[in-house]
Amino acid sequence: MTFKKKLIEHLLSLILITSLLGTFLYFTIENKNIQNTQKNERIEPYLGLSFIDFDNPFDRALLLDVLNTYKPGQQSAHESLIKTIEQYRKTNLIEGMEEAYRKEQLSSKKWQQLSMMYAKFILIYIFVMILTYYGVQTFGILRFIRKQQNRKSHLLSFFQQLVTKPKYKRFKDYLNYYLQTILHLLKSIVIALAYFILFAPAYVIAYSLKTQLNTNTIFFMIILAVISNGLLITYTNKFYTFLVTESRKGYVQTAIVKNLNMSYKRTQKSAINYASIFNVRKHFPMHVFQHIYINARYQYLQTIKEQASFLISGLIIIEMALNIQGHFSYELLKQLLYKNYDIVTVIILGIFYIVKLTEIFTDWLTYKESIKYENVEPVGAK
Amino acid sequence: MRNVLLKIKQYSIYIYSQKDKFWLIVWLGILAITFIWNILFLNKPALRLIIDGFLNTLYISILVVIFSFILGWIIGLVVVRFESSPFQLPYFLLTFVLNLIRSIPQIVGILIGYIGITYLITANIVNNAWLIMTTMALVISLFIFNEVIDLIRERINHFKKLDFYNAMKVCGISENRIINFDILWKNSRIHILNKLIAIFGSAIFLQCTIDFIVSVGLSTQVSAVSLPTTLGSLLAKIDSKQDILAIGNTLMNPSYFSHIFFEHLQGVTVAFLIVFTLLSVYKISNGFSERNRL
Amino acid sequence: MSNTGLNINISDGDRTLVHIDNFSFSTNKITFLFGESGIGKSMISKAVYGLLDPDELQIKINNKAYQSYLNLPVTRQIKQNGFFVFQEPSSHLNPLLKIEDQLNEGAIDENLDEKSILQYLWDTSDDTAIKKIVDIYPRPYRPSGGEKQRILLAMAFKKINFALQNSDSSSSNLFVFDEPTGSLDNHFRNLFLQLLFDKFNQKSFTSLFITHDYSIISWIMQHHKNMMDHIDFKELSRIDSTKVKLEYFAPDQYLNWLNNIKKATVQSAETGTSKSEVLTINKHFHIYDRAYTIYSDPEFKQPSDLHINKGEMVYLKAGSGVGKTTLAKIIMGLQLADQFEFEISGLNLSDQTKLKLWKKFIWGKKIGMVFQHADEALNLEANVKESLDGLKSKKLRGDFLR
């Protein structure tokens, strides 16, 4: 499918969802107004009389007399009206206090509040997206290199060293040997802990740290969004799979027979060193891995869409589960609870727009890259 | 005796080399140890809740896998059929709807679905616990099954590009058989199985999360409605949350570490079951891909 | 390597893929290695060159672990000084790097007379034609298979030039060409062989040339008989399902056998009766914005429909990329043409015909087609019975295999 077709499809879904939710929003607001009007229709004219103090029994009696005088023969109806006004004012006072807190309208103040929250949400989203994009590639490469180095797991090394009885002459050698064994154990514990954090849902991590840290800060949210909910580990694994798949392709063998460096030992001089792995713009000159990396990176572009959706879900989870006041998704949950469906609709629409814009951006990025590799002449070029 | 030890060693090496089987054994083993520990140190009502929560979570997740598989397979085939048809409108409409579902963050979609479920419960349309859990599974799978469709389409389109598809077609072999038997069963069942393992993990994560959010955030709305106990809803209970807070406590006060496994067992067990199951499913899926060179 | 043969065993888990005792070839000679498809020529050559992955396959050479073979100084020298031209050119070029960049990296990232090699292999002195090819990213359809193959050959020749310039006579080298002429027509094949022999005559090197193309023998005997002292012909044959053996192949005997083959005489069943037409293809057809015309004369002056009668066998011969397979696929309904018309056994079909018609009347009934690449055209995960079980005709189903 060409980019143009994809763009049309994206725009159509944007229009469709906007119209659907827009219509829903319109009817929700209308419904709210009608309910309020129906409730007050009978007593509304009297409530507006500024010269009558309904708290004063004399004023109430005066109103009854006036009504009986101007509309004679309806005495019981007038008494019921006064009672209704009394009842309404009583319940309205109690409910009003609650309702004032719960029921909200899409006023300009609310729009302003929502816009601020939305901007905050987008900002966090962009930060987390950039960090995970970098993290996924960096950790994916580290894992791939580790695999190429045929490194054993620390736990296995620990057990093997524990079972093997070394034959040394000096005590110092024995000490070194067992220190190394303990080091393997410690490393495996750290790795296990890291795995637990990476797979833990955000709320598990956040609740366990709630007494130690202020978990409501944006900084904490960003860190949490990057490392928790399995986001980083899932997409690192995806990138790693691309690297493994690409490493089995024929062009890698051609690169090998051209004598490109194929050693994965990390040395200062080697192209595979920490500086190149952790660099934002990763480059591995004269190394077979450069071929593998550029192909894996290209394939990964298509996954960004999926990653973005996963990430947004993660952010929503964090904001909702941690009840972080003043954040977009918490607001969604709160408004769902208070049944303010007009505000709910606006928030959902906002989230949908972010997903769609990310999809359009990813498709454009992939298209831009692909036309280069497809040998397509840029429009206007001779 | 030596022979037995040698055999055990050889078998262990064999199992360790097949990481999916190794992690399946590790998962079940650790679950068994956790269960025994809880029998010894956790009070009976809490233990009952944890067992119920875990089994309900497993039941819902397995159902999500089954529903996603059935929906994904059927709709995947329909999409492929529409895709190759000269009349492209049905294909456009179907992919449009599928892409629309994809664009709704899973958690938002499932949350809205859960509100629907609470309505069904309050209206007394759905009242049996098994039926409620089945409906919950159906809602979750509606936002996951796209993954199965993508895989099925990718596999079929890959094989369609090869001469293999055309070669069978010109022999007069029906397209249904080529797609279902030759492509999906013979050449893709391992890929599909691997996807289903991953979906099982996603289902556990989403279900625990949504139950946690619903229990914490929508408690007043949903409290009138009794949803079945799951690991997520158990974690949202105030005593479980306090147990988890105790984990953080040990960072500043390491001597408190030993208390966690006795005094805060309910919350810690629930959190551990969720995280360890997610980790194990990931490892099993990875090991499976590695063993089958996917 | 010339005197001591290698015992090679390659297995995948419990399954032995190939086993050969005493695999040897002479140093500083070109060895042409023949053998049936799937016998393990490529795998054995990759094992010798040191390209197999010991983590994926269990390989033993001379009963020792593959890693110890890889660590031998001679193996290291082979990899350092040699080159391996792989069988499938498409998958052996990086799709995300320009061909020009791929021609200039690693050991071949030097001025190694690239221009003249490319000009020779393309049989042109026109720089722009070459520039057009090297300035693009390799995609499935562009450059063509033959051009990709020549790119890989150019890399090999650059490495040969490098070896000619740099290596001393004592260091080992090995240039493996795995089916290097599979995508080339005879003209370009001969150009490549000519260049190979020219380079060899400048300074000898060791080369292993894997091929199915026995017609190379006749060409060498006709044009390069003087090279025979530097050439070995060997053939791999099966001992059993996994064991293979290597034997010398006598080119003279082969050519004699070829000359003595009696011309097959075709006895048409239709002799004496009037010709009955099976297939008629309209002289004009149009596909991918290109118009094609069928001519009945070698001068391409008389457009004419193509008629194929019952009992006839038609040999369609054309250069690579002209559209032979495309024509077959259009007839089979596998490729949509912009304009096309043909008649088969009284059934008229055209570009307007719906696909259903092929499904109903043609596939498995009137026409069959054998595809080019066996590996791609077969379901590698199904056995023969399972593959045949899908056929509509009960007689043809796999039950008879029981």
Which helices and strands appear, and what pairs or packs with what?
The complex is a heterotrimer of chains A (382), B (294) and C (402).
Chain A: H1 3-40, H2 44-47, H3 57-70, H4 75-102, H5 108-148, H6 154-163, H7 171-199, H8 202-209, H9 218-227, H10 231-247, H11 250-257, H12 274-278, H13 288-300, H14 304-321, H15 328-337, H16 341-373
Chain B: H1 2-17, H2 19-41, H3 44-83, H4 89-103, H5 106-122, H6 129-142, H7 146-161, H8 163-170, H9 175-217, H10 219-222, H11 231-235, H12 238-252, H13 257-263, H14 265-291
Helix pairs in contact in B: 2-14, 3-4, 3-6, 3-7, 3-9, 3-14, 5-6, 5-9, 7-9, 9-14, 12-14
Chain C: E1 6-12, E2 15-23, E3 30-35, H1 41-49, E4 58-61, E5 64-65, H2 66-70, H3 73-81, E6 83-85, H4 99-102, H5 114-122, H6 127-134, H7 145-166, E7 175-178, H8 186-202, E8 207-210, H9 215-223, E9 231-238, E10 243-248, H10 251-260, E11 277-281, E12 284-287, E13 290-293, E14 306-309, H11 324-331, E15 341-344, E16 347-350, H12 355-362, H13 374-377, H14 384-388
Parallel strand pairs in C: 2-10, 3-8, 3-9, 6-7, 7-8
Antiparallel strand pairs in C: 1-2, 1-4, 4-5, 9-10, 11-14, 11-15, 12-13, 15-16
Helix pairs in contact in C: 5-7, 7-8
Outline the structure in words:
The complex is a heterotrimer of chains A (382), B (294) and C (402). Chain A has helices at 3-40, 44-47, 57-70, 75-102, 108-148, 154-163, 171-199, 202-209, 218-227, 231-247, 250-257, 274-278, 288-300, 304-321, 328-337, 341-373. Chain A is an all-alpha fold and 382 residues long. The model of chain A is unreliable at 378-382 (pLDDT under 50). With 294 residues, chain B is mostly helical. Chain B has helices at residues 2-17, 19-41, 44-83, 89-103, 106-122, 129-142, 146-161, 163-170, 175-217, 219-222, 231-235, 238-252, 257-263, 265-291. In chain B, helix 3 (44-83) packs parallel to helix 14 (265-291), helix 5 runs antiparallel to helix 6 (129-142) and helix 12 packs across helix 14 (265-291). Chain B starts with a helix and ends with a helix. In chain B, 41% of the residues are buried. The model of chain B has no long low-confidence stretch (mean pLDDT 88). By secondary structure, chain C is of the alpha/beta class. Helices cover 32% and strands 19% of the residues of chain C. Chain C has helices at 41-49, 66-70, 73-81, 99-102, 114-122, 127-134, 145-166, 186-202, 215-223, 251-260, 324-331, 355-362, 374-377, 384-388, and strands spanning 6-12, 15-23, 30-35, 58-61, 64-65, 83-85, 175-178, 207-210, 231-238, 243-248, 277-281, 284-287, 290-293, 306-309, 341-344, 347-350. A 10-stranded mixed beta sheet of chain C has the order 5-4-1-2-10-9-3-8-7-6, sandwiched between helices. In chain C, strands 14-11-15-16 form a 4-stranded antiparallel beta sheet, with no helix packed on it. Chain C starts with 5 loop residues before the first strand and ends in a 14-residue tail after the last helix. The mean pLDDT of chain C is 86. Classes of the chains: A mainly alpha (382), B mainly alpha (294), C alpha/beta (402). At the A-C interface, helix 11 and helix 13 of A face helix 7 of C.
